[in-house]
Design a protein that fits this description.
Blueprint (H helix, E strand, L loop, with lengths): L6 H5 L7 E5 L3 H9 L4 E4 L3 H4 L11 H12 L6 E5 L9 H13 L5 E3 L7 H9 L4 E6 L5 H4 L9 H17 L3 E5 L3 H10 L4 E4 L7 E4 L1 H5 L17 H18 L13 H12 L5 H14 L1
Helix pairs in contact: 4-5, 5-6, 8-9, 12-13
The structure holds 3-methyl-2-oxobutanoic acid.
């Protein structure tokens, strides 16, 4: 069994072996991710799109994130459980931020939290770190800013914006985050950030130069509903198609009576079966006879 992954161990992986991160939102997907060797399981607010069918991530609340994080934590993975802070859980005040991060840890079993944004989040990040909760940053295409960005667009394509992002990354790293997710940015920008900061970068749509990579589990496995997939996703199979085929087999077996078979069936002792049949036949006869039969069965036991 590999030892438990922690924030300090992730930090120590800077420039070393690549960090493997994937999302999971419940007990079975957490078990799958952990068996496959994930370093970090992110209970992402992408649960909103991927599992709950919303258009964007803005719909999910701290309660929803606690619910899903707790299900993942119950799998007791060796991977670190990283809870995503949903929109508006760290935007209103430092106090709310610490309380909400604390709920993900205390009620959800998260071992660290992730939140989106650059320098304007520093007071919140400092406060959460002050409560002894490790924090991972998230820069670039930050889905919670979908309206402010005018859609899901690659960020930092022009030098000025890219330079702002480098400055954000440096500020977050200096403040003490143990890693930064870089999402939807040109590879050269991710390369520069990765070189310039002392904490690991984990890329998603950020090219190959990051210290690690993350994808949404349902995208990797082809477990979604066949909807649009971003360019940066590599789908390794189609669990959705496989599942449809397996269920079709089940339904066909139900139709033909092939299911359930002997191996899937319970039986009662032969003498009880006989009595049951007699009882059933005597349904219209005086109850004294039925009582005698039941007494006989009790004696035989
Ligand atoms: O919620 C999520 O899945 C994420 C990843 C895209 C990094 O934040």
């Amino acid at each position: 069994m590999s030892p438990k992954m922690t924030a300090p161990k992730i930090l120590a992986r800077k420039g070393g072996s690549k960090i493997k991160m994937v999302t999971a939102y419940d007990f079975p997907t957490a078990r799958i991710a952990d068996r496959a060797g994930a370093d970090i399981i992110l209970v992402g607010d992408s649960v909103a799109n991927v599992v709950l069918g919303y258009e964007d991530t803005l719909a999910v609340t701290v309660d929803v994130m606690v619910h899903h994080t707790a299900a993942v934590a119950r799998a007791k993975p060796n991977a670190m459980v990283l809870g995503d802070m949903p929109w508006l859980s760290y935007h209103t005040s430092v106090e709310d931020t610490v309380r909400n991060a604390g709920r993900l840890v205390r009620e959800g079993g998260a071992e660290a939290v992730k939140l989106e944004g650059g320098r304007k989040r520093l007071p919140m990040i400092r406060a959460v770190l002050g409560a002894e909760i490790p924090v991972m940053g998230h820069l670039g295409l930050t889905p919670q800013s979908v309206h402010a960005m005018g859609g899901y667009r690659v960020q930092g394509k022009r030098a000025a914006a890219a330079y702002e992002l480098v400055s954000d990354a440096k500020a977050l790293a200096d403040t003490g985050v143990f890693g930064i997710v870089l999402e939807g940015v040109p590879d050269v920008l991710a390369e520069i950030v990765t070189r310039e900061i002392s904490v690991p970068t984990v890329g998603i749509g950020a090219g190959r130069h990051c210290d690690g990579q993350v994808l949404v589990l349902h995208d990797v496995l082809g477990l979604g509903g066949g909807e649009y997939l971003p360019k940066f996703v590599r789908q390794y199979g189609s669990i959705a198609d496989d599942s449809v085929a397996l269920l079709e087999q089940f339904f066909a077996d139900v139709e033909t009576g092939e299911f359930p078979g002997e191996a899937e069936t319970y039986h009662m002792p032969a003498e009880s079966e006989e009595i049951l049949r007699d009882l059933n036949q005597m349904a219209s006869e005086p109850t004294a006879a039925a009582d005698d039969l039941l007494a006989d069965e009790a004696m035989e036991r």
